[in-house]
Amino acid sequence: MWCHRLMRPPPILANGLLVKRWPLLSFQRTAQHQAFDALFDHDQLAEARKWHQSFRMSSLPPGNTSFSRSSGPGGQHVNKTETKATTTWPVAQLLACLPKLLHAGVRQSKYYSKRSDCLTIQAQTQRSRTANTDENLEKLFEELQAMYRNTVPGETSPDKAKKYEALKKSANDTRVKLKKQQASKKSFRKGFAD
């Protein structure tokens, strides 16, 4: 038997192949008695929240759109017209209109193209160029909204802030009490050594 604290789990054989089991990693807060948004810079949080309140699809840069023939169903219309819209937004252009907290997430987006350092989105579901171009803009808007939701925590209510302060104070009091108990034990032991 193995102890999960001291050793890694043993590998398993699956279909004759050696497969290693690794524990799943999850995000854990390092500070126990602290609100989640306390780990962020308050100025950057305020900037991101203010940006999100005024963020509209019309505030996005237009990007560079090119058209090509789309694939799939559509018959002769698809073969004769170039309705597939491919829109690219250079990362530098997007970062200029995003708050600092979202900058790291732009290059981690599923639409990021490392070769050209831009976000590239394609749409070919509609039969018109403008509809496909609008769909690209909608996809970018949804991606930035999801990036905001995953990056910026919600505001901590005053009640929760008070709760965390009380927890922090009680944890500190308990720590000091234990330290004093240990100090008294040590001083008691020294008294017998004389």
Automatic annotation (TrEMBL):
Q: Where is the composition biased (Basic residues)?
A: 177-194
One GO cellular component this record assigns the protein to is: mitochondrial large ribosomal subunit
- Where in the sequence does UniProt note compositional bias of the Basic and acidic residues kind? 167-176
InterPro entries documented for this protein: Mito_Release_Factor_mL62, Pep_chain_release_fac_I, Pep_chain_release_fac_I_sf
Q: Point out the coiled-coil segments of this chain.
A: none
GO molecular function terms here?
peptidyl-tRNA hydrolase activity; translation release factor activity, codon nonspecific
Among SUPFAM superfamilies, the record links this protein to: Release factor
**Start and end of every Prokaryotic-type class I peptide chain release factors domain?**
65-187
Where is composition skewed (Polar residues) in this entry? 59-71
Domain of life of the organism encoding this protein: Eukaryota
Question: Per the UniProt entry, what are the Gene Ontology biological process annotations, in alphabetical order?
Answer: mitochondrial translational termination
Report residue spans for region: Disordered.
Answer: 59-80, 167-194
State the family named in the UniProt similarity comment for this chain: Belongs to the prokaryotic/mitochondrial release factor family.
Indicate what this protein is called per its UniProt record.
Prokaryotic-type class I peptide chain release factors domain-containing protein
